[in-house]
Design a protein that fits this description.
Two copies of one chain form a homodimer. By secondary structure, chain A is α+β, with helices and mostly antiparallel strands. Chain A has eight helices and four strands. At the A-B interface, strand 4, helix 3 and helix 4 of A face strand 4, helix 3 and helix 4 of B.
């Protein structure tokens, strides 16, 4: 049975799942969905994900979307890799940080990146400074909390887990977005640990190349 | 070992967890956190949830926050109730809809409710009509998708699960917020099924009373 991965190089959400696919050393077939040309709105793709978003997967009869739900499912295919612990209290912490990223950290980072990176890449100079200031104030609350969570440990839930992949994907545009980690040293060290992993490096290649093609350099 | 539930009557996020606590027939002790008086910002509560938000729980040495992560953990304490299926493909669908509610449906509904319900309850008449129009357009995309997901089944993942509690809590302010389900009959029928459950009714009592105290009627 082939596992099919519906991908888009530009998407930080797809990056999160692509990295977990590589970390788990799963065999899979990639279908690149060209969002710019509307390939995400075809009837064939909407039958996979009615939201018309990437990532999505198909595994036999199962169509699945939402990157963090996909990553949890993929981990169940390779439980020996331990990316999603079975013990309820450890799993609960993985879920807690994954939801926190989805609900709080991710949207704040994404809005700043939209104003500071994506708008200029589209030739727009109308950054919404009020929005940026508001999201920066939110980040000033959230980053110390993540830094405290990472202090004294290598990964957010102790061992490497899907929560690290969820959280880290949100930081990839930090440099062009002007977000400093100078006051979050545990976060900076943790990102370096993840960036040293071959699976992360492989997953980053199409993302980095896509951004470079639009004049966005990550470093 | 006592399970402690940090609650706030006004919070739809706390409602979601309170309902699951009752559905699972768990014994627990409630600590009401008076957010209006800043009880969520005390050092004692920030040690439980550094975000200063409800709900949170404490179970022995475990402090846990993010309502959907809490609900998954609580389900693991009573696996025989089947609120969070163990079979990976069924669990994946529960996760998918829970994240979709957290990321897409919930924020859209919440922003409309803030403008249409919470601002007037505070005596404010400055509803942001541009924001409301944008979120209504989003809802016009999302509601048919949920309606299709519920068509022909009683619960979103087949059997009752934590995903139903996550999704339903988002709809409780629909009437004062002026959100019609006339074009989403499967959603309307599903909410009625959940509202018929004693656990939901028990969980709704403090929420309903709190809102009534601020002049907000749910029906």
């Amino acid at each position: 049975m082939t596992l099919t991965f519906y991908d888009a190089a530009f998407s930080p959400n797809a990056l999160r799942t692509r990295a977990v696919l590589h970390e788990l050393e799963l065999g899979f077939e990639t279908v690149e969905i060209d969002v710019a040309s509307g390939a995400n709105k075809t009837a064939a793709f909407l039958a996979i994900n009615p939201n018309g978003k990437v990532p999505a997967i198909r595994d036999g009869e199962l169509s699945l979307w939402e990157s963090r739900a996909i990553n949890a499912y993929l981990s169940s295919l390779r439980p020996e890799y331990g990316l999603y612990p079975v013990e309820p209290q450890r799993r609960a912490l993985v879920d807690q940080w994954s939801y926190w990223q989805a609900i709080h950290l991710g949207p704040a980072m994404q809005k700043i990146a939209f104003e500071r990176v994506q708008k200029p890449a589209l030739g727009r100079s109308d950054a919404d400074e009020t929005s940026i200031a508001g999201e920066r104030a939110t980040l000033a609350q959230l980053l110390p909390l993540l830094d405290a969570g990472l202090a004294g440990r290598d990964w957010i839930a102790g061992k490497l887990s899907v929560a690290d992949f969820a959280l880290a994907s949100t930081f990839m545009l930090r440099r062009p977005a002007g977000i400093s980690l100078d006051h979050a040293p545990a976060v900076a060290a943790w990102i370096s640990r993840l960036e040293a992993r071959p699976a992360w490096q492989t997953a980053m290649q199409p993302y980095r190349a896509n951004l470079a093609g639009r004049g966005i350099e990550l470093t």
